[in-house]
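Worked Example 4.2. Read the sequence first, then its structure tokens.
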Amino acid sequence: MAAGMTETEVLEALKQADAVLSGHFQLTSGRHSDTYVQCARVLEDPGLTTRLAQAMAERVSVNGIDLVAAPAVGGIIIGFAVAQALDVKFIFSEREHGAMTFRRGFSVPAGARVLVVEDVVTTGGSVAEVIGLVREAGGEPVAVTSIIDRGGPKVFDVPLYPLLRLEVDSWEPDSCALCAAGVPLYSPGSRRL
């Protein structure tokens, strides 16, 4: 991979940034896990963010991307960096009254080939919402890229090109042994902002 980022190097960068956390976490998907990756810690470093974005852009550049779209909050920094690496425009979606929407005058040109960028994908709920917005606007979602794919089935139908596949167990809240043991739950994600 150009930009010199192997899966091992991506994982090492996450560890060096203290981005891999252990505990009891509620993921953006609503599922619970004993491991959480706080990609914002890696994205504090502009040089590393640029290297990650270049590696992500290289993986999808054959798709002829016209526009990059990302869900707020987690996808904004890396989405912008990937758009910069691809030399295309960047937009992001936000929640308004609980629903994902493009605000701030953002639009998707009819027929635009759109790359959706996210920091971490578990089930891909936020990604699926952005894909839906792109389609509603007349764009064509051609690929999804992320720093991390946490594994498991996805709720979207567009090819995913992650830099790192990190298989981490997660559970529905009603079958979470950590809940049953009374371990305090932490929800570090941005869905409920």
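Now turn to a second chain, presented in exactly the same format:
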Amino acid sequence: MDEAGVGTAGAYRHCEDVVRSQARNFAYGIRLLPAPKRRALSAVYAFARRIDDIGDDHEAPAPERLAKLADERARLADPGAHPSDPVLVALADAARRRPIPLDAFGELIDGCEADVRGAGYDTFDDLLWYCRCVAGTVGRLSLGVFGTSDPGTAAPRADALGVALQLTNILRDVKEDGANGRVYLPAKDLARFGCTLHRDDSGRLTDPPERLVSLVRFEATRAEEWYGTGLKLLPMLDRRSAACTGAMAGIYRRLLKRITADPLAALETRTSLPAWEKAAVSAKAMAGMHR
């Protein structure tokens, strides 16, 4: 180890601390993995989180955020060359041990750059590109940690599960994103249901409630279809990896069900699950009840 660097064990501990403090929903699944895979997936998450945080730093000017993303893209080309960066130290070690497709992080950065530039999405296919960049990539990176005997079949399923989770995020965060000037739902879908998502001076949505309900439930049905494809990944994984994936997906599907049950409430407050419910989903996943 370089004297100015950090040790591999300490680097992994740092990444696991990031997961515990910032992962929220993902932490419930990651902790179900055996230690070597838990450490590796924590490294993947910690770097993905770094990219997301740069993209989401609305206090910083766009050119500054784009420059930071470009810098991280360059550093990723040789993560082992940064011995003082615990996240890259852990990520480099994990990639040496497991077939983690580090180039997928480049797509994640592409998606975050689109966020910084304020990109909008006209059609669902346009939005699908974004979802695959920012979430499908994480599914494929995670698959590199989990391992599978048929990566050619498994990778598109991991990608689909990431898309499902991202669509759920988008529905959960409509109000928060709107406050930041972002609308992710496809413009053609908004037009189809006669919605604008505009708010009046008091912050209330101006669209007729019945149209908003129809819009949200339409998008939720689409997300559920992506879960249907993505969850076919689970039988292709070992028991603990399937439990991890099942816990993450299960928590997000519960969120989606709550959003579907009361779309208007979901548009006004950020839908979340209590800790006990997340723990219950994780326990069921560990028991194999996700299959």
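Notes for the reader: The chain has one domain: 8-286. The chain has 14 helices and no strands.
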